[in-house]
Write a structure and sequence with these properties.
The structure holds two protein chains of two kinds.
Chain A (H helix, E strand, L loop, with lengths): L2 H4 L12 H10 L5 E6 L2 E7 L10 H4 L10 E5 L2 E7 L1 H22 L5 H14 L11 E9 L3 E7 L5 E3 L2 E4 L3 H11 L6 H15 L10 E8 L6 E5 L2 H11 L5 H5 L4
Helix pairs in contact in A: 4-5, 6-7
Chain B lengths: L9 E6 L3 E7 L2 E3 L2 E4 L5 E5 L2 E4 L4 H22 L5 H13 L11 E7 L5 E8 L5 E3 L3 E5 L2 H11 L6 H16 L9 E7 L3 E6 L5
Antiparallel strand pairs in B: 1-2, 1-10, 2-11, 3-4, 5-6, 6-7, 7-8, 8-9, 11-12
Helix pairs in contact in B: 3-4
The chains are: A alpha+beta, B alpha+beta.
Protein name (chain B): Proteasome subunit beta
Pfam family, one (chain B): Proteasome
Subunit structure (chain B): Component of the proteasome complex.
């Protein structure tokens, strides 16, 4: 019976459901995990990379650019970092839209876009694809880690239906239920950025499918305030920096051990 | 009265030895009436590029913000800073988009571009108000005092000036040129860009 309704994005089923939206969300729950934690003095994002392999050319990620390997974590504006889970091609289109929206806001108001306004702009578009016919919705959930002078540090989540909400700590993608219950147990109000970083890495190491935890499979970013200028400072870690961070947190697992044939 | 001369103001850029300099006056007027003596027409684009926008005052502000938009989009997408040559073409195409209703600005830009060997090469350029590029090897001028700037620069500029000498040359050039133009003057600002620093100096001038 559902077949009659689930091929169209804009038609309710008799039970009042929009199947295409639910399928999009289902697709996301198989995507690489993205985890965000809001701290008193910053926001942390971490993401599991799915596209890996010996032959993958990562030369671009090692030097140059603003860090990150361009799969999961992106700079949306000088005050917002985005983490994506879902269809990468859809995500790239949304990121481009977000960056343009942020710059349009700067052009119009001579002020950086507030984080919630940016989330709203993307959700307005995402919602449109659940109502107007002929097109499928964006198969992407996003986490927005940002700062603005009105509400300081913020963490938002948006899904394919165009819903968005603010969080102290949240997770999207594969195993998000496990991660969220872990976060619920371990999150404390007024957590500091240093503790938030280790919390994110600890939860990440427990949720990720792979046994290894290294720059191969992890993207990591932190948004803080520059101590001198008080301007938001987005730092997306480079592979070497991620490995160094894991080492210092005592979470670096030996990749070579896995690579070697069992003896 | 031409709309290009409504608010007054002038900009000049010069090439030196492994350095460039760009200078503007500080006057904003309403025809012959002086309104402000703190109206800067030169804006930083990256750590190694400056853009001067002499012309209609309102378009100075508008174009400054429009180029910030486009350079920010370039930087975030390409994940690197824009090179002066690329920026010059961005300026040119942006102005030509408004071919039949132009911004009343004649931009002047100065910067250091990266060479394949890892060094830096001086770069200056200017365009007319619809974006026709002029890549010069010595100096470029624009604004209400452009004809005077041309004359003085022709007389004072010489090749391979060191940063301090280039500063002296560009300062003498702009000060003497704007003193002979009723719509420019009221103080000057000079930026000298070298590979490891930018020196910005404000010059006092005749206030008549």
């Amino acid at each position: 019976m559902a077949r009659r309704y689930d091929s169209r994005t804009t038609i309710f089923s008799p039970e009042g459901r929009l199947y295409q939206i639910e399928y999009a969300m289902e697709a996301i729950s198989h995507a690489g995990t993205v985890l965000g934690v809001l701290a008193k003095d910053g926001v942390v994002l971490a993401a599991e990379k799915k596209v890996t392999g010996k032959l993958l050319d990562l030369a671009g990620a090692k030097e140059g650019g603003y860090g990150g390997s361009g799969e999961k974590i992106f700079l949306l504006n000088s005050n917002v970092i985005g983490g994506v889970a879902g269809l990468t091609a859809d995500a790239n289109s949304l990121i481009n839209y977000a960056r343009t929206a942020a710059q349009k806001h700067l052009l119009t108001y001579n002020d950086d876009i507030p984080v919630e306004v940016l989330a709203q702009r993307l959700c307005d578009m995402k919602q449109g694809y659940t109502q107007f016919g002929g097109l499928r919705p964006f198969g992407v959930s996003l986490l927005y880690a940002g700062y603005d002078p009105h509400y300081q540090f913020q963490l938002y989540h948006s899904d394919p239906s165009g819903n968005y909400s603010g969080w102290k700590a949240t997770c999207i993608g594969a195993n998000n239920g496990t991660a969220q219950s872990l976060l619920k147990q371990e999150y404390k109000d007024d957590i500091e950025i240093k503790d938030a970083i280790s919390l994110v890495l600890r939860v990440m190491s427990k949720t990720m499918d792979s046994t290894t935890l290294g720059s191969e499979k992890l993207e990591f970013a932190v948004l803080t305030l520059d101590p001198e200028t008080k301007a938001p400072k987005a730092k997306i870690y480079r592979p070497a920096e991620i490995d160094a961070l894991l080492q210092s947190e005592g979470l670096k697992k030996d990749e070579d051990a896995e690579m070697k044939p069992a003896q | 009265m031409s709309i290009m001369e409504n608010n007054g103001g002038s900009v000049i850029a010069m090439v030196g030895k492994e350095c460039v300099a760009i200078a503007c006056d500080l006057r904003l007027g309403n025809q012959a009436l002086g309104v402000s003596s703190d109206f800067q027409k030169i804006f930083p684009v990256t750590d190694r590029i400056f853009l001067g926008l002499p012309g209609l005052g309102t378009d100075v502000t508008t174009l400054k913000e429009l180029f910030r938009f486009r350079v920010n989009m370039y930087t975030i997408k390409e994940e690197r800073e824009i090179e002066p040559e690329t920026f010059a073409h961005l300026v040119s195409s942006t102005l030509y988009e408004h071919r039949f209703g132009p911004y009343f600005i004649e931009p002047v830009m100065a910067g250091l571009s990266k060479t394949p060997s890892g060094g830096f090469k001086p770069f200056i350029a200017a365009t007319d108000l619809i974006g026709c590029l002029n890549f010069a090897k010595d100096f470029v001028v624009a604004g209400t005092a452009s004809s005077k700037l041309f004359g003085v620069a022709e007389g004072l500029w010489e090749p391979d000036l060191e940063p301090e000498d280039l500063f002296e040359t560009i300062s003498q050039t702009i000060m003497n040129a704007v003193d002979r133009d009723a719509y420019s003057g009221w103080g000057c600002i000079v930026h000298v860009i070298t590979k490891d620093q930018i020196v910005t100096r404000t010059l006092k001038a005749r206030m008549d």
